[in-house]
Amino acid sequence: MEQMRKYFAEFLGTLVLVFMGCGSAIFLGCATQGGHLAVAFAFGLSIVAMAYVIGNISGCHINPAVSLAMFLRKKLNGIDFCGYVVAQVLGAIVAAALLKILLSFGITDLTGGLGSNGVANAGRFGGGLLVEILLTFIFVLVILGVTSDESKSNVAGIIIGLTLTFVHIVGIPLTGTSVNPARSIGPALFAGKTAISELWVFVVAPLIGSILAVYAFSLISKAE
């Protein structure tokens, strides 16, 4: 029962993140004046909000790359890692489905692809991989640093949310910013062939970035 409570929290948290983040891109657009920053803040504020709702239940990972980092740091066991990832992906899929339903009422999708990620502006696959690895590395490194210091526990959600905001500010013009495989999987399933054919970049790159962040943090952490 305790495990299912954690998994459901991760499901809800990821649903909110994808619905609000991708929804802001779909309904506001990123090319309009202020659209880029609005979308970045929508993702960041979603993390802040969920951190103070489910943080004490599941840790508010709502991202397989974060869960992988916690698994590698031995703060999450193998069963919970699998449960978290499944819950996160399902939450993203449900969020994307809800956005798809809203669009069926005649609302215009200003992204043209349900807020899915793409590599075109990053110079195709090589650029997309590099962007996502670097941004995920930064994001996960901050999470590891903040969550390892109990004195920062009261502001951890705000710090992590602001970090997600600034990586989106850089990444949105290049890839739409994933740094989260679940966030990419949900919209891609409804967006069509191009999003699905490029999806592997947004699954593989964040996981690589997460592994590198764990390694880098182990080198600088006093605890190590």
Could you walk me through the main structural features you see in this protein, from its secondary elements to its overall organization?
This protein has 224 residues and is mainly alpha-helical. Helix content is 75%, strand content 0%. The protein has helices at residues 2-28, 35-58, 64-72, 78-103, 124-147, 156-175, 181-191, 193-197, 199-220.
Jot down its keywords.
9 helices
Write down the Rg: 16 Å
Number of helices: 9
H-E string: HHHHHHHHH
Calculate the terminal CA-CA distance, rounded to whole Å.
34 Å
Give the tally of β-strands: 0
Secondary structure layout plus pairing:
Elements: H1 2-28, H2 35-58, H3 64-72, H4 78-103, H5 124-147, H6 156-175, H7 181-191, H8 193-197, H9 199-220
In brief:
Helices cover 75% and strands 0% of the residues.
